[in-house]
Protein backbone atom coordinates (compact mmCIF):
# COMPACT_ATOMS: atom_id res chain seq x y z
CA UNK A 1 0.00 0.00 0.00
CA UNK A 2 1.24 3.46 -0.90
CA UNK A 3 0.37 6.76 0.76
CA UNK A 4 0.28 10.05 -1.12
CA UNK A 5 -0.23 13.52 0.37
CA UNK A 6 -1.87 16.55 -1.16
CA UNK A 7 1.36 18.12 -2.38
CA UNK A 8 2.28 15.05 -4.39
CA UNK A 9 -1.25 14.66 -5.72
CA UNK A 10 -1.67 18.30 -6.74
CA UNK A 11 1.71 18.18 -8.42
CA UNK A 12 0.63 15.22 -10.53
CA UNK A 13 -3.00 16.07 -11.28
CA UNK A 14 -4.01 19.33 -12.93
CA UNK A 15 -6.98 20.70 -14.82
CA UNK A 16 -5.80 19.49 -18.21
CA UNK A 17 -7.10 17.62 -21.24
CA UNK A 18 -5.94 14.23 -19.96
CA UNK A 19 -7.80 14.64 -16.67
CA UNK A 20 -10.85 15.88 -18.59
CA UNK A 21 -10.76 12.76 -20.78
CA UNK A 22 -10.53 10.52 -17.71
CA UNK A 23 -13.69 12.00 -16.15
CA UNK A 24 -15.48 11.98 -19.49
CA UNK A 25 -14.65 8.29 -19.90
CA UNK A 26 -16.12 7.66 -16.46
CA UNK A 27 -19.38 9.32 -17.44
CA UNK A 28 -19.38 7.41 -20.73
CA UNK A 29 -19.03 4.11 -18.85
CA UNK A 30 -21.90 5.14 -16.57
CA UNK A 31 -24.03 5.86 -19.63
CA UNK A 32 -23.23 2.44 -21.12
CA UNK A 33 -24.25 0.70 -17.92
CA UNK A 34 -20.70 -0.42 -17.12
CA UNK A 35 -20.66 1.03 -13.62
CA UNK A 36 -21.75 -0.33 -10.24
CA UNK A 37 -22.59 2.73 -8.17
CA UNK A 38 -24.41 2.53 -4.82
CA UNK A 39 -26.28 5.48 -3.33
CA UNK A 40 -24.35 8.12 -1.42
CA UNK A 41 -23.88 7.49 2.29
CA UNK A 42 -24.47 10.85 3.92
CA UNK A 43 -24.40 11.94 7.55
CA UNK A 44 -25.21 15.35 9.02
CA UNK A 45 -23.35 16.70 12.05
CA UNK A 46 -25.72 19.55 12.73
CA UNK A 47 -24.20 20.90 15.93
CA UNK A 48 -21.00 21.70 14.00
CA UNK A 49 -22.72 22.77 10.75
CA UNK A 50 -21.08 19.78 9.13
CA UNK A 51 -21.80 16.86 6.86
CA UNK A 52 -19.92 13.80 5.67
CA UNK A 53 -20.48 12.03 2.35
CA UNK A 54 -19.10 8.66 1.33
CA UNK A 55 -19.10 7.89 -2.40
CA UNK A 56 -17.84 4.96 -4.41
CA UNK A 57 -18.23 3.18 -7.74
CA UNK A 58 -16.71 0.31 -9.67
CA UNK A 59 -16.10 0.85 -13.37
CA UNK A 60 -16.00 -2.55 -15.05
CA UNK A 61 -12.59 -3.18 -16.58
CA UNK A 62 -10.81 -0.68 -14.32
CA UNK A 63 -7.91 -1.99 -12.26
CA UNK A 64 -9.01 -0.19 -9.12
CA UNK A 65 -12.04 1.34 -7.42
CA UNK A 66 -12.09 4.20 -4.92
CA UNK A 67 -14.06 4.90 -1.77
CA UNK A 68 -14.06 8.60 -0.93
CA UNK A 69 -14.80 10.15 2.44
CA UNK A 70 -15.65 13.83 2.05
CA UNK A 71 -16.38 15.98 5.15
CA UNK A 72 -17.72 19.50 4.80
CA UNK A 73 -17.71 21.66 7.94
CA UNK A 74 -18.95 25.06 6.92
CA UNK A 75 -18.06 27.06 10.03
CA UNK A 76 -14.39 26.13 9.64
CA UNK A 77 -13.37 29.39 7.92
CA UNK A 78 -14.16 31.20 11.20
CA UNK A 79 -11.47 28.98 12.75
CA UNK A 80 -9.00 29.57 9.96
CA UNK A 81 -9.62 26.08 8.55
CA UNK A 82 -10.89 24.95 5.13
CA UNK A 83 -14.55 23.99 4.82
CA UNK A 84 -13.85 20.86 2.78
CA UNK A 85 -11.49 17.99 3.40
CA UNK A 86 -11.27 14.28 2.73
CA UNK A 87 -9.36 11.35 1.37
CA UNK A 88 -9.73 8.50 -1.10
CA UNK A 89 -8.99 4.86 -0.37
CA UNK A 90 -8.13 2.96 -3.55
CA UNK A 91 -8.60 -0.82 -3.73
CA UNK A 92 -7.67 -3.47 -6.25
CA UNK A 93 -10.71 -4.54 -8.23
CA UNK A 94 -9.21 -8.04 -8.49
CA UNK A 95 -8.22 -8.79 -4.90
CA UNK A 96 -9.92 -6.11 -2.78
CA UNK A 97 -6.59 -5.21 -1.19
CA UNK A 98 -5.78 -1.56 -0.53
CA UNK A 99 -3.41 -0.28 -3.22
CA UNK A 100 -3.15 3.31 -2.02
CA UNK A 101 -4.58 6.03 0.17
CA UNK A 102 -4.78 9.49 -1.35
CA UNK A 103 -4.68 12.12 1.39
CA UNK A 104 -5.81 14.80 -1.05
CA UNK A 105 -7.71 16.98 1.48
CA UNK A 106 -10.51 17.36 -1.05
CA UNK A 107 -8.27 18.40 -3.94
CA UNK A 108 -9.30 15.57 -6.26
CA UNK A 109 -12.96 16.21 -5.52
CA UNK A 110 -12.50 19.86 -6.47
CA UNK A 111 -10.76 18.87 -9.71
CA UNK A 112 -13.26 16.23 -10.80
CA UNK A 113 -16.16 18.57 -9.93
CA UNK A 114 -14.74 21.33 -12.10
CA UNK A 115 -14.07 18.90 -14.95
CA UNK A 116 -17.65 17.62 -14.81
CA UNK A 117 -18.86 21.18 -15.32
CA UNK A 118 -16.61 21.52 -18.35
CA UNK A 119 -17.91 18.24 -19.77
CA UNK A 120 -21.49 19.41 -19.36
CA UNK A 121 -20.63 22.62 -21.24
CA UNK A 122 -18.81 20.65 -23.95
CA UNK A 123 -21.95 18.70 -24.80
CA UNK A 124 -24.64 21.27 -24.00
CA UNK A 125 -23.41 24.82 -24.57
CA UNK A 126 -23.00 26.66 -27.86
CA UNK A 127 -19.62 25.91 -29.41
CA UNK A 128 -18.84 29.61 -29.78
CA UNK A 129 -19.54 30.34 -26.08
CA UNK A 130 -17.09 32.90 -24.72
CA UNK A 131 -18.84 34.60 -21.81
CA UNK A 132 -19.67 32.91 -18.51
CA UNK A 133 -21.69 34.19 -15.56
CA UNK A 134 -20.60 32.74 -12.24
CA UNK A 135 -22.85 32.88 -9.20
CA UNK A 136 -20.63 32.46 -6.16
CA UNK A 137 -17.03 33.42 -5.46
CA UNK A 138 -15.47 30.40 -3.77
CA UNK A 139 -13.05 27.72 -4.94
CA UNK A 140 -15.41 26.15 -7.48
CA UNK A 141 -16.27 29.55 -8.93
CA UNK A 142 -12.63 29.81 -9.94
CA UNK A 143 -12.00 26.19 -10.92
CA UNK A 144 -15.16 25.96 -13.03
CA UNK A 145 -13.93 28.78 -15.26
CA UNK A 146 -10.45 27.27 -15.54
CA UNK A 147 -11.99 23.94 -16.54
CA UNK A 148 -14.35 25.62 -19.03
CA UNK A 149 -11.29 27.01 -20.81
CA UNK A 150 -10.43 23.42 -21.76
CA UNK A 151 -13.58 23.18 -23.91
CA UNK A 152 -14.58 26.76 -24.78
CA UNK A 153 -12.69 29.98 -25.61
CA UNK A 154 -13.79 31.85 -22.49
CA UNK A 155 -12.67 35.47 -22.40
CA UNK A 156 -15.22 37.25 -20.17
CA UNK A 157 -16.58 36.44 -16.72
CA UNK A 158 -19.52 38.12 -14.99
CA UNK A 159 -19.64 37.38 -11.27
CA UNK A 160 -22.24 37.81 -8.54
CA UNK A 161 -21.86 36.76 -4.91
CA UNK A 162 -23.83 37.47 -1.76
CA UNK A 163 -20.78 39.29 -0.36
CA UNK A 164 -19.62 42.07 -2.68
CA UNK A 165 -16.10 42.02 -1.22
CA UNK A 166 -15.79 38.31 -2.03
CA UNK A 167 -16.90 38.99 -5.61
CA UNK A 168 -14.30 41.77 -5.94
CA UNK A 169 -11.53 39.52 -4.60
CA UNK A 170 -12.61 36.80 -7.02
CA UNK A 171 -12.54 39.28 -9.89
CA UNK A 172 -8.96 40.28 -9.08
CA UNK A 173 -7.83 36.64 -9.06
CA UNK A 174 -9.50 35.94 -12.39
CA UNK A 175 -8.19 39.13 -14.02
CA UNK A 176 -4.71 37.94 -13.11
CA UNK A 177 -5.43 34.95 -15.36
CA UNK A 178 -6.00 37.24 -18.33
CA UNK A 179 -9.80 37.34 -18.27
CA UNK A 180 -12.13 40.31 -18.46
CA UNK A 181 -14.21 40.23 -15.27
CA UNK A 182 -17.27 42.29 -14.36
CA UNK A 183 -18.71 42.36 -10.83
CA UNK A 184 -22.49 42.70 -10.53
CA UNK A 185 -24.80 43.54 -7.65
CA UNK A 186 -27.69 41.51 -9.10
CA UNK A 187 -28.07 38.06 -10.61
CA UNK A 188 -30.14 39.18 -13.58
CA UNK A 189 -27.50 41.72 -14.61
CA UNK A 190 -24.72 39.14 -14.19
CA UNK A 191 -26.52 36.68 -16.47
CA UNK A 192 -27.83 39.11 -19.08
CA UNK A 193 -25.15 38.46 -21.72
CA UNK A 194 -24.01 35.01 -20.65
CA UNK A 195 -23.40 32.08 -22.97
CA UNK A 196 -22.93 29.86 -19.91
CA UNK A 197 -24.15 30.30 -16.33
CA UNK A 198 -22.51 28.35 -13.51
CA UNK A 199 -24.05 28.31 -10.04
CA UNK A 200 -21.52 27.43 -7.32
CA UNK A 201 -23.19 28.36 -4.03
CA UNK A 202 -24.31 26.51 -0.89
CA UNK A 203 -27.72 28.18 -1.14
CA UNK A 204 -30.70 26.59 0.57
CA UNK A 205 -33.20 28.62 -1.45
CA UNK A 206 -33.36 29.19 -5.23
CA UNK A 207 -31.24 32.06 -6.55
CA UNK A 208 -31.71 31.65 -10.33
CA UNK A 209 -35.09 32.00 -12.07
CA UNK A 210 -36.25 31.63 -15.66
CA UNK A 211 -36.42 35.41 -15.96
CA UNK A 212 -32.65 35.52 -15.51
CA UNK A 213 -31.96 33.31 -18.54
CA UNK A 214 -30.91 34.91 -21.84
CA UNK A 215 -31.74 33.13 -25.09
CA UNK A 216 -29.47 30.21 -25.90
CA UNK A 217 -27.77 30.01 -22.52
CA UNK A 218 -26.47 26.83 -20.91
CA UNK A 219 -26.76 26.51 -17.12
CA UNK A 220 -24.59 24.22 -15.01
CA UNK A 221 -25.80 23.97 -11.40
CA UNK A 222 -23.11 22.70 -9.04
CA UNK A 223 -24.17 23.71 -5.56
CA UNK A 224 -27.14 21.50 -4.72
CA UNK A 225 -25.54 18.30 -3.49
CA UNK A 226 -27.59 17.54 -0.37
CA UNK A 227 -31.29 17.40 0.52
CA UNK A 228 -31.34 20.89 2.05
CA UNK A 229 -29.65 22.80 -0.79
CA UNK A 230 -31.22 24.42 -3.86
CA UNK A 231 -30.01 26.94 -6.43
CA UNK A 232 -32.54 26.70 -9.28
CA UNK A 233 -36.11 27.84 -9.16
CA UNK A 234 -38.34 25.22 -10.77
CA UNK A 235 -39.09 27.73 -13.53
CA UNK A 236 -35.51 27.33 -14.78
CA UNK A 237 -35.96 23.61 -15.35
CA UNK A 238 -39.42 24.02 -16.84
CA UNK A 239 -38.13 26.71 -19.20
CA UNK A 240 -35.20 24.60 -20.41
CA UNK A 241 -35.36 22.88 -23.78
CA UNK A 242 -33.25 20.07 -22.30
CA UNK A 243 -32.65 19.16 -18.64
CA UNK A 244 -29.68 16.90 -17.89
CA UNK A 245 -28.36 15.52 -14.60
CA UNK A 246 -25.47 13.26 -13.61
CA UNK A 247 -27.91 10.69 -12.23
CA UNK A 248 -31.65 11.06 -11.90
CA UNK A 249 -31.72 9.28 -8.55
CA UNK A 250 -29.21 11.66 -6.98
CA UNK A 251 -30.85 14.72 -8.49
CA UNK A 252 -34.17 13.66 -6.98
CA UNK A 253 -32.71 13.33 -3.49
CA UNK A 254 -29.77 15.76 -3.38
CA UNK A 255 -30.08 17.87 -6.51
CA UNK A 256 -32.49 20.21 -8.21
CA UNK A 257 -35.13 17.59 -9.13
CA UNK A 258 -36.11 17.14 -5.49
CA UNK A 259 -38.47 20.10 -5.80
CA UNK A 260 -40.61 17.92 -8.08
CA UNK A 261 -40.77 14.97 -5.71
CA UNK A 262 -44.01 14.05 -3.99
CA UNK A 263 -42.42 14.80 -0.62
CA UNK A 264 -41.57 18.35 -1.68
CA UNK A 265 -45.27 18.98 -2.29
CA UNK A 266 -46.63 17.57 0.95
CA UNK A 267 -49.01 19.95 2.60
CA UNK A 268 -50.35 21.31 -0.66
CA UNK A 269 -54.13 21.30 -0.93
CA UNK A 270 -53.98 21.35 -4.72
CA UNK A 271 -54.76 17.78 -5.74
CA UNK A 272 -54.01 18.57 -9.37
CA UNK A 273 -50.47 19.63 -8.56
CA UNK A 274 -49.03 23.13 -8.33
CA UNK A 275 -48.17 25.00 -11.56
CA UNK A 276 -45.64 23.06 -13.60
CA UNK A 277 -46.09 19.83 -11.63
CA UNK A 278 -47.89 16.76 -12.84
CA UNK A 279 -50.56 15.22 -10.63
CA UNK A 280 -48.18 12.32 -9.97
CA UNK A 281 -45.36 14.64 -8.87
CA UNK A 282 -43.39 14.04 -12.07
CA UNK A 283 -41.76 17.09 -13.66
CA UNK A 284 -43.33 18.28 -16.93
CA UNK A 285 -40.18 17.69 -18.96
CA UNK A 286 -37.95 14.85 -20.06
CA UNK A 287 -34.91 14.08 -17.93
CA UNK A 288 -31.61 13.12 -19.55
CA UNK A 289 -28.50 11.74 -17.85
CA UNK A 290 -25.08 13.12 -18.81
CA UNK A 291 -23.45 9.71 -19.17
CA UNK A 292 -26.02 8.58 -21.72
CA UNK A 293 -25.80 11.89 -23.58
CA UNK A 294 -22.08 11.20 -24.00
CA UNK A 295 -22.26 7.44 -24.63
CA UNK A 296 -25.11 7.68 -27.14
CA UNK A 297 -23.98 10.89 -28.83
CA UNK A 298 -27.29 12.60 -28.07
CA UNK A 299 -27.53 16.12 -29.49
CA UNK A 300 -29.84 18.04 -27.19
CA UNK A 301 -29.04 21.53 -28.39
CA UNK A 302 -31.12 21.81 -31.55
CA UNK A 303 -30.36 25.49 -32.22
CA UNK A 304 -28.36 28.44 -30.87
CA UNK A 305 -31.55 29.60 -29.18
CA UNK A 306 -31.96 26.40 -27.13
CA UNK A 307 -31.68 26.67 -23.36
CA UNK A 308 -30.01 23.75 -21.63
CA UNK A 309 -29.62 22.98 -17.92
CA UNK A 310 -27.34 20.43 -16.24
CA UNK A 311 -27.62 19.54 -12.56
CA UNK A 312 -24.44 17.95 -11.18
CA UNK A 313 -24.55 16.45 -7.70
CA UNK A 314 -21.20 14.62 -7.82
CA UNK A 315 -20.93 10.89 -8.42
CA UNK A 316 -18.82 8.01 -7.19
CA UNK A 317 -17.84 7.21 -10.77
CA UNK A 318 -16.07 10.57 -10.95
CA UNK A 319 -14.13 9.67 -7.80
CA UNK A 320 -13.03 6.28 -9.09
CA UNK A 321 -12.11 7.83 -12.44
CA UNK A 322 -9.99 10.62 -10.94
CA UNK A 323 -8.38 8.27 -8.38
CA UNK A 324 -7.29 5.86 -11.13
CA UNK A 325 -6.02 8.78 -13.18
CA UNK A 326 -4.11 10.19 -10.21
CA UNK A 327 -2.45 6.86 -9.42
CA UNK A 328 -1.46 6.50 -13.06
CA UNK A 329 0.37 9.81 -12.82
CA UNK A 330 1.80 9.19 -9.33
CA UNK A 331 3.01 5.63 -9.95
CA UNK A 332 4.10 6.10 -13.53
Automatic annotation (TrEMBL):
InterPro entries: NAD(P)-bd_dom_sf, ODC_Mu_crystall, ODC_N. Residues 260-281 are annotated as: Disordered. Pfam families: OCD_Mu_crystall. It comes from the Bacteria. GO terms for cellular component: cytoplasm. This is Ornithine cyclodeaminase. It comes from Modicisalibacter ilicicola DSM 19980.
Amino acid sequence: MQLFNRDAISGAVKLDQDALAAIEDGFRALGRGDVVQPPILSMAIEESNGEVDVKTAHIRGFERFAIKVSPGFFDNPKLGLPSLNGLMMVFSAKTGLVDAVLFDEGYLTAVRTALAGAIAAKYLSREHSRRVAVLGAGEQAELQVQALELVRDIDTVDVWARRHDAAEAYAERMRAQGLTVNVHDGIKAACAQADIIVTTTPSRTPILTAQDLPEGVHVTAMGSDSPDKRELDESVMIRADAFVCDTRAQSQTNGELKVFSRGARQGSNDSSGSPGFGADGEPPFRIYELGRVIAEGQRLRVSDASITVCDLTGTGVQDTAIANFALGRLMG
